[in-house]
Amino acid sequence: MPISPTAVWEVRTTGSDANGGAFRAGATGIDYSQQNTPQVIFSDLVIGTNTTELTSAANPFTAAHVGNVINVTASTGFAAGRYEIMSVSAGVATMDRPVASVVNTPATGGSGRLGGCLLTLPALTSAMAASNRAFVRAGNYPITATALFVASHTPSAAAPPTTVSGYYQTRGDLYPGSPDNANRPTLTVNAAIASVISGVTSSGLLIQNLQLVAGSSNSSSFIILGTNSAVVNVRMSGFSGRGISAAGSGGRVQHCEFVNGTAASGSAAIHGTNTNLTVFNSHVRNCSGGGMFFGGVGAVVDACVVVNNPGANTDGISFAGGGILTRSLIHGNGRDGVRHTGMANGASLTLGNIFSENGGYGLNSTGAFPAQPMYDGNAYYLNALGARNNVDDTTAVATNGVGAYTNVRDVVLTASPFTDKTAGDWSLNNTPGGGAALRGTATPSSWPGLAVTGYPDFGPIQQQRSSSEIIIPYLGF
């Protein structure tokens, strides 16, 4: 029987893997896991006639201990492991499962530690159960062994994801946009292992508020993302393969940063091989293997920045099965900004994006498709081979008596639209023919059946509106 699904773990660089490490959420006792040292060190544990009961003459159990985890180490008659204290009566603690190694064999002189946080992430990995939550305090955690945080369950209201959350000083102080994100816990990879965080055969894993960096050695992939799993507010740098390899379906990548990936072209920073992967509000730069690759259908990319990923065969984003791309900036990539290598006509949506200074086309498809409204509404600037290729074909028109669709929402710029691209300031300038042409002119600007007009900017970074620019919609009365 594993630890309760509601157990909450604590890891700090000042802890010990011999500690209890966890507290059951909602328990009536006092949480002693959020401290460096154990609350009690036992050396005289005795198993009662009921093998789920423990007593100690030197340190009798109290009501304050309920909900804490005790790490029982190997002693004669004891099954070593971590156990939750479910209740305490008259100094006798009832555990979540039998503590004896052999049923009906009395055991005395047992050792254990109640409370205190863990020290290492491998110890956390071996201790966690499905739907557990773990908090990792800021610090450096060297990675020299096998993959971490393997989970395997389908998330639901009754069984939430298995979650690992970094924090700086107080639980919850790190989140997308937090001013303390520079202080996220750091996983330094000092081993050439296949992956640091693995979910290749698992599901229901949520990783958030961490940073992974290459140390003395490296990893092929930093994170393998399983089905219905997510990575939020994580920074990855120096990976030799992929930052995230999404092996399962229904994954989510949100507010993540990928920088200085060293792989050869074709091993993108985000590499999705299954279906329905969503990438939102993320930033990929200077990754020689490419920005993003989606091998399955149903990919969604929104409000992302994919810039300066070098290499003659390196694309900003590559879709092998179609996908949705909206409100994103695709700039300065070695080959195409976006390359479609296999999509059915009408299977993709590409709107509100900026394609600029890519080494090939801004938007390219290896198959010819007629111009369509779902590709009309993007901005282009100085892409080496042109704005679009094979998504505005005038010969592949259905024989229905209607001529080819004409793009009317695209904007071809005559000046750079960015405030300071060298410094990474991708906000829109106010230069005529540049950023000024992209302010308030993107799509959608209207909605069927609504008498209201919108004024979105192209790309992910919207301008701040002044008080004089408040728009009052017509409400029909």
Number of helical segments?
1
β-strand number = 39
Helix content: under 10%
Low-pLDDT stretches are 470-477
Measured between the Cα atoms of the first and last residue, the distance is 64 Å
Radius of gyration: 27 Å
**Sheet of most strands:** 11 strands, mixed
Given the C-alpha coordinates, what overall shape results? elongated
Describe the structure.
The structure is a single chain. This protein has 477 residues and is mostly beta strands. The protein has one helix and 39 strands. It has one helix spanning 121-127, and strands spanning 7-11, 22-24, 40-47, 53-55, 69-73, 81-89, 92-95, 107-114, 133-137, 140-143, 162-167, 186-189, 195-198, 205-208, 211-214, 221-225, 230-232, 235-237, 242-246, 252-254, 257-259, 270-272, 278-280, 283-285, 292-294, 299-302, 305-307, 317-319, 323-326, 329-331, 338-340, 349-351, 354-356, 361-365, 379-381, 386-389, 411-412, 418-420, 425-428. It has an eleven-stranded mixed beta sheet with strand order 2-1-9-11-14-17-20-23-26-29-32, with no helix packed on it. An eleven-stranded parallel beta sheet has the order 10-12-15-18-21-24-27-30-33-35-37, with no helix packed on it. Strands 13-16-19-22-25-28-31-34-36 form a nine-stranded parallel beta sheet, with no helix packed on it. The model is unreliable at 470-477 (pLDDT under 50).
